[in-house]
Amino acid sequence: MLGRSSFSRPASFRPENLGQNALAMIGNLCFTIFVLGVLIFTIIAATYEPEDPLFHPSTKITSFLSSTSNATFKSDSSVVRTGEDFMAANQTAFATFINITDVGATPMSVGEALECEGEVDKPIDCTDPEVFHVMMKAAIEHFKDIHFYRFGKPVRGSNDSSCHMAWRFRPKEGKTAAFYKDYRSFVVSRSENCTLSVVRIGDYHSGGNARKRKKNQKPGFEKTPLKESREIATLPVVGEVVNDSLPVVESEGSFDHGRYLLYTGGGDRCKSMDHYLWSFMCALGEAQYLNRTLVMDLSICLSSIYTSSGQDEEGKDFRFYFDFEHLKESASVLDQGQFWSDWNKWHRKDGLGLFLVEDFRVTPAKLAGVKDTLIMRKFGSVEPDNYWYRVCEGEAESVVQRPWHMIWKSRRLMDIVSAIASKMNWDFDSVHVVRGEKARNRDLWPNLATDTSPESILSTLQDKIEDGRNLFIATDEPGTSFFDPLKDKYSTHFLHEYKDLWDENSEWYADTTKLNDGVPVEFDGYMRASVDTEVFLRGKKQIETFNDLTRDCKDGVNTCSSAS
User: Which residues cross the membrane (predicted)?
Assistant: First the structure.
């Protein structure tokens, strides 16, 4: 007879408890999965950095900006491009603009109509919401080729019937990722029944009272030298007041704790602006890589190819040509004169070190561990080994990237571009014609056309641009009578027709003269070519006259690249 087994089942495995245990296990498993899901979601949410919808550059653009293809400067490169040229605007990011239906005038009640008697001749109250609505509606109806994104509150104008109002806008068919600002004078009339209407809108920037004045900012140096690109990926706003005062170091302690990079000497001076930018961006890129403040010389030598004298001209301010306000907000930079003034005061007293580098083959990676306050790269007199951009060749090409997004064109020049486009109501087509071997500013343009006769141009345009259209002609041809055959079919416009925008009575002249310590500034060849190019790029249809004469510009960026 077999004995009774000494094994007894635990209570949890008894048949009557199995169902209950299974449910408990399933519940625990579900709870564990839930906790893991929450943890994973939290990690993703904390680390995910979404792309800005305004910036989706193509592979071609990205490769240009990162400068990974070839660090060596090519003297025959085409258009001098700056950061805003590569902000490929995603049009969906600008979908929310102000429609005429958004600003319908407030209807007048019967009581208000009865109270109208005796009000007809009173001054217009520019702060009245009804006046605001009437002015917004008039602006939207008048300027049909732009999208409005923001209106400023009206302010009193030059007399009792005048109000000034500002707004931010973009051209409807614009390819550039930029906003523009205009402020104009409105003449407002009140009828016998007190109905308000706008009887006249002034010219571009005629409403100066509505222009916001920036306070005198004194930018300090109490900030991290290297700023994340996502912090500075903002859109340029053309028409705002420019604050390009020089940054200063606020204290001796701030200066002592800073780390600086300075380039001096070399053969880059008085070369073309294309060459200058290629070298300057190498220096700025190295400063970013080393997490140092770039000490820069704001005094530029302008090459003879841009001057009316035909001679190289020293003493041109960086701020004449480029947006220094954007640069100093994007990167840590300091004017060379300010730096040496502070250095001479404090370097001996505080024991600040200087690390001198006289060979461009010393790579940025080898300087990463240098603790001295100042790294100074000194370049010799033998070309081409004394060009700054040589630092970014070879090994350095893979680690130093030129931060093109930090360099924008001067907003003072871009304001002239906006003014010219506004005078044509942003409703124009454009053609670019370069003629002859003596063409000035050749490095600003793509490959030149072989046939730029009026007959050839007309033949090209007849199937591209409708008769009667506004046609802006960007050209180096000084005698515009050459283009007279085009006037029978188009309303032609040339840069020189808008010289009031930079003459001695202009805002540009006043601003640059003040910037230049009271000395008037010449509107030189580089400025002319830059403005001419940028107006061309804002045409609804853009026709280049290079080897492939019939190719349109549809790159989606601020430039028409030449055919390869």
Answer: 21-48
